[in-house]
Amino acid sequence: MNEWKDLFIGGEWITPESGRHIEVISPHTEEPIGRAAAAGTADVDRAVAAARRAFDEGPWPRTDPAERVAVIRRLAALYGERRDELAALITAELGAPISFAERAQVALPWSMMSAIADIADGYPWQEKRPGVYGQDIVLRREPVGVVAAVIPWNMPQFLTVTKIVPALLAGCTVVLKPAPESPLDALFLAGLFEQAGLPPGVVSVIPADRDVSAHLVAHPGVDKVSFTGSTAAGRQVAAACAANLTRVGLELGGKSAAIALEDADPAAVATAVRFSGMGMAGQICNALTRVLVPANRVDEHADALAATLSALKVGDPTDPRTEMGPLVAERQQRRVREYIDIGVREGARLVTGGTGLPEGVERGWYVRPTVFSGVDPSMTIAREEIFGPVIAVLPYRDEDEAVRIADDTEYGLAGAVFTADTERGLGVAARVRAGTFGVNQGYSMDPAAPFGGVKASGYGRELGREGIEGYLDIKSISIAAP
């Protein structure tokens, strides 16, 4: 049993004033595997106050950027030494297959730390610019202040790193609020922050429920909120930030389309769909969940998807051979099953999968990988974010209609196109309204490339130099000409 009795606030481990805790349930066994301290609103106030002092009075924002880079490199070294422990913890906590946890849940954020530090190492924190009227202009890029980072449960370490590391490199102080489904890995990371030698108050970690999150994002002591979660929650966060004119970055939901052109290989498309989200049972915001195919190749593509996804080994996430584990919670399992029932009722053809447990699985919050064909763009399963292993195959007549269908959604997070003609693929990518896109692959989370969405998928960017700039203000200084 993993147990964390305290919160990490102001550089110290502190018993929560709320006296509450979070019981963490295994999605595989449906039994408790850990307990974590749960913050209340008084704990939020304490964490924000510590971050405020560390920013307004402490050394971190005034430290040379090269020294901040050195701290992050030290953190990356500590992280690397503990990554096997962290992967096993995430597998127990979230049901992520251990092979996926090692690769994507831990190794990816570990590599991101060093990559983002490299970007910061060469970043122009100050530059001179000649003024139009003969004066000199100096531009300083300065930290925005206290950041509230609100993290969902599906990719907790990756999303934490892509928020906290750029914020710290920019010179900000951070209050991290992980989801109640994933408090254990966040508190584990807090211990590494402590070992890395960050000044007190620069990072606080306070697991909490949604009501406490609302108190944090509306807090007048916060200068920026960085939020990843559902679009519905994102709208509430944006409204709360508007009241205080708090800066906010939102990475929200998606209903991403994979457009298979006439010359696309159905097996290659199916493989890309599998890798875009099935490692977390479809619980990935930029997963390719709508597959748009030529009307005369629908069966070919549906069969390839069915063959690929039904061959996945689903079950015990601690087994290295497992390729897909359970959903994170019983409510999530129930939600996905309801969407599958809706798809059948609305007339879509169930090619594989369904609401039953996978073969050989007797308990746990599992759903079989599911493929629907004959899906109309107006159907619920083609429009709403399911956040589970459910794929909808939609036919199109020509490229123009494919682009129209891809854009016929409130979301605009990601997408992909598959074709033997890369230049044609780039042309399609330019036409679809989305923040990120892949050609002959799902979108790759490259640390050099900014990631984020448009429309109801949010605004702001993470990763790349743009990810650091999201935590900076620009100060312009004009110097009188001699």
UniProtKB/TrEMBL annotation:
The active site is at E251. Keywords: Oxidoreductase. Residues 13-477 form the Aldehyde dehydrogenase domain. Transmembrane segments: none annotated. SUPFAM superfamilies: ALDH-like. It comes from the Bacteria. The keyword DNA repair does not apply. The keyword Oxidoreductase applies. InterPro entries: Ald_DH/histidinol_DH, Ald_DH_C, Ald_DH_CS_GLU, Ald_DH_N, Aldehyde_DH_dom. It holds the Pfam family Aldedh. Belongs to the aldehyde dehydrogenase family. This is Aldehyde dehydrogenase. It comes from Actinomadura rugatobispora. The lineage of its organism: Bacteria, Bacillati, Actinomycetota, Actinomycetes, Streptosporangiales.
